Amino acid sequence: MNFFDTLPEGYTENFVIDAKSQKTGVIMNVAAIAVFIVFTVVAVILKGVDLKSVSLGFESLIFLIAFIVAVLAYTVLHELVHGLFYKIFTRRKLTFGITWSAAFCGVPDVYVKKAPMLVTILAPFVVFLLAAFPFLFIVTDARIFVLLAAFTGIHIGGCSGDLYGAAIMLFKYSKHPELLVNDTGPKQTFFIKE
Q1: Which of 36, 45, 162, 189 has the fewest beta carbons under 10 Å from its own?
Q2: pTM for the complete prediction?
């Protein structure tokens, strides 16, 4: 069993991550933007891309529109990957949505155990990083490389909430294998056995 329908006896709420909270939402989005910028700049520098060679004509506008569409599609796919793993582990109804600070997928009616929660929370990070990262080494067109580096930076930065939740589970609750998490989507509540 990977989850409980009701909170078992002896568990108490210990920590909350709420993306709807102004403070948390701002911090996570600032972190996401910082990671995006740093990753993109470092990737461009390491690849030795001469930005002067990147033309800004009509063709670049087409690339930019395709990039925006790809980022929007990625956002949906990111949440669907969370949903896939939640479905595998819980077979329960999922909730999807978007707030001012984040897109989300949750399974609000259950309390998920630590291991399946870690897999679910990290799945999009791993799947899309493995899909995008190799192309950073094979793409030679400067314009496409810059967009791919930016896309990968958006991916890594966009996973800041997921990575934060995983870090909480791995470090704050390293000695709590009985940890349970209730995930409404924008809000994860962590419960430990007292």
Answers
A1: 45
A2: 0.92
